[in-house]
Every structure is written in C-alpha cells, then in structure tokens.
Specification:
The chain contains eleven helices and 17 strands. By secondary structure, it is an alpha/beta fold.
C-alpha cells in the first residue's frame, strides 16, 4: 500500500509498504478522506513541540471497514467509520478517571506515533466510531475537529443561555462557535482579522467582529452589554489573542484555551489572579464528544461545506501544505481525497 511519510519539515515521500497484519481485536480500514489541520501545519513547519521526524500524518479521517478481527463486534465490514487517534496507557490517573485524552503517556497518531495517511490502516476496534450511512466521507473526517469543539464547550460548563466570545475564526474557532449556538448559547460572537474567514462565519450563522477594523472591547459591550462574555474561547494559539481574552474578560469569568501554541506563551497572570479568572485548557476529546458531534451533524446544526476550501488527491498531499502557506486565511480546510 502507499503511505505518505513526512521525512523532515516541508518534505513528504510516498513509500510502498506492506499492509499491517491484523490482530483479533482490530479492524482494517480503507481510508477515504483526510483533513489537514493547524497542528499538521506546525509539523510541516518544524514547529510542533511534541513531534519528531520521520512521521506519518493524518488524524482527521474517515474510511470504510474492509476487514474485522474475530473478537470485533462494534462494527461490520462495509461500515463508514472515523477513528479516535489517541494512544493511551489506560492505567494512569486521568485514564482511570475517564480523562484518557489527558493520559500521562499520551501519543497521538500523526504526531508521536503512526498516523493514517496511507491507503489502508489497521487499528484497535475500540478506537473506531461508526458513522451514519448517509454521512459523506468528507463530513466523516470533520467529526474529529468538531469533537475538539464539543470538548471545548464542555470544558467551559453549561453554556445554555450564556454569552460566548470566540477569538479566532479558523476551522476550530468556527466549529466552537457553531457548537455553542447548537448547545443553547444566548449569543455567540467571533473575533477574526481575516475578511474571508469573517464571511465564512457569517455563512455559518455566526455573529462577527472585524478585529482589524473594529475595537474588540467596544464590540463586546455592543453585543453583550456591560456584563461582557460569560465564556471566552481562545482558538488561535498566540500571545495576542490570549492577552485579549484576559484583558477583556469580566471579573470572575472563564477562559478556555483551545488553540495549539507553536511557541510558549506569555500571559498576564496578575489579571488572572486579581480578576479571579478561571483559565482552562482543552485538549482533544473523549468518545462522548465524538458521539455528540455526530448527533449535532445529524440534527442539522453544523455547516461543514463552507469550511472546505480545497480538495486534493493523495499524491498531492504536499501541495495541500503549500496551498495553506500560500493562501493562508483563504485556506480553511484542505481535504485529501484518497480515491
């Protein structure tokens, strides 16, 4: 089978490798669709703090089950599926308390262990989640980033009737905002610099503020009133937006950090202390987040198609990164089509 290997930052090679042998508790998937995400881009630039080379990428995926082991009962041959890409120990405190996304020995497919950028992938059945039969493979691959958004909203708490500010209108920020709307927020506002991403957000039914040309604090007060936002989601992963979240939060409110930082951030801990802010991180997801993500899509709450800006064939994998670098904000979500 053909496998895409990033041998060094900015360089992908395709190797013909054997299809892995299957164990009795595993399944074999014919890969159909792979999304390229912001964390992948950090790897391409050599700036992901927890990835070494060579590495096989691919963690936003969907595919068709083509073979199952003798002990597998949760899926059948022919099922559409996606995969939770975490590899966990199952023994540490987080794992033992249902927080395996925070496993002390966590490895993630595509970063610290082999990802799914290959024609076939063999994986433990308990990492596989069946998709609805009428869901497209493209949408199936986007369940993973939507699960990131669902988990982030759950990290905040009960957002029903609350006012939500999202900093960053990229794919994750957009999906966080859509999820907040779907889960009962009173008002949701995205702050973003890119005119293109602002238009995408509007197409997804999200209220926006043009942070390049509008004062963010004025927009917060105009949209939410003097009590400002109940929850702020940082979805960029840079010092500037983290600083905005802290500076513009009302006293006693909650900030959830969702963005992946390529560089270590500097934040105003004096404000965090003096304003009694709650600062939470949000890392990946657990199975319940995938199930909720699928439910939101089934119920018609999530607009995926506006996020997909580029479609490329498997052999053009490197071209996806080049397009993202060249077009920047206009490249929302590049999808690798395996066939």
């Amino acid at each position: 089978m053909l496998q895409a290997i990033m041998v060094e930052p900015g360089k992908i090679e395709f190797n013909d490798v054997p299809v892995p042998e299957m164990k009795s508790d595993q399944i074999k998937i014919k890969m159909k669709s792979i999304g390229v995400c912001g964390s992948d881009i950090h790897v391409n630039h050599g700036k992901h703090p927890y990835t070494s080379y060579p590495v096989v990428q691919g963690h936003e995926v969907s595919g068709e089950v083509v073979e199952i082991g003798s002990e597998v009962s949760n899926v059948e041959v022919g099922d559409k599926v996606t995969v939770q890409p975490q590899v966990v120990c199952g023994k540490c405190y987080p794992c033992a308390h249902g927080m395996y996304n925070d496993c002390e020995e966590l490895e993630v497919m595509g970063f610290q262990t082999t990802g799914m950028a290959s024609e076939y992938f063999v994986v433990d059945a308990n990492k596989v989640i069946a998709l609805p039969t009428d869901m497209t493979y493209e949408h199936g691959a986007l369940i993973e980033p939507l699960a990131v958004a669902v988990h982030a909203i759950r990290r905040a708490g009960d957002i029903n009737g609350k006012k939500i500010l999202v900093l960053g209108g990229g794919p994750i920020g957009n999906l966080v905002a859509q999820t907040a709307n779907a889960m009962g927020a009173e008002a949701v506002l995205i702050s973003e610099l890119s005119e293109y991403r602002l238009e995408v957000a509007k197409n997804c039914g999200i209220q926006t503020v043009d942070a390049k040309n509008e004062d963010l604090l004025d927009a917060i007060l105009d949209n939410f009133g003097p009590d400002r936002a109940d929850y702020i989601f940082e979805c960029v992963g840079i010092n500037a937006t983290t600083g905005q979240a802290i500076d513009y939060a009302r006293k006693g409110s909650t900030i959830v950090v969702v963005g992946v930082f390529a560089d270590f951030g500097n934040i105003n801990m004096g404000y965090v202390q003096d304003h009694e802010l709650t600062l939470k991180g949000s890392a990946m997801y657990i199975e319940e987040d995938y199930i909720k993500a699928i439910e939101l899509v089934n119920d018609g709450f999530i607009e995926f198609d506006s996020l997909i800006t580029h479609r490329l064939k498997f052999k053009d994998y490197m071209k996806a990164y080049e397009i993202i670098d060249e077009q920047k904000d206009k490249a929302m979500k590049a999808m690798i089509e395996m066939e």
